[in-house]
Amino acid sequence: MRTKVVKWGNSLGLRIPKSFAKEVQVSEGSEVDLSMQDGQLIIRAIQPTPIRLEDLLKDITDSNIHAEIETGDVVGNEYW
Fold first, then answer.
1. Residue 10 lies inside a defined structural domain of this protein
2. Which of the listed residues 15, 53, 57, 77 has the most CB atoms within 10 Å of its CB?
3. Domain interval for residue 39
4. Which long-range contacts (C-beta less than 8 Å, at least 24 apart) are formed by 71-75?
5. How many separate domains does the chain show?
């Protein structure tokens, strides 16, 4: 497919057709990797690494964990 490079501020931009974006799973804000190979511009979608609970909790130890925090009496329909 042919497309045109357009001026975007002081940079240049490309429009990615919706069908292409859907196929490689990119949307607004997605990160891509740009590289040059044999004089050609290569654009590769970067799939985000899933966030795992184990990774978020791995640095919590007995020495850095805090105690429960008292938030006061129940207001409304909360149940603790």
1. yes
2. 15
3. 6-48
4. none
5. 1
Radius of gyration (C-alpha) of the chain in whole angstroms: 23
pLDDT digits (tens, 9 = 90+) for 5-22: 999 999 999 999 999 999
Q: Residue 25: which CATH number?
A: 2.10.260.10
Amino acid, single-letter form, for residue 45: A
Both tokens of 50, joined, read 């899933």
Neighbours of 20 (CB within 10 A): 13
Say how many residues make up the chain. Answer: 80
The upper half-sphere exposure of residue 22, i.e. CA atoms within 13 Å in the direction of its Cβ, equals 3
Q: Looking at the domain assignment, is residue 61 inside a domain?
A: no
53, part of any domain: no
pTM across the whole model: 0.55
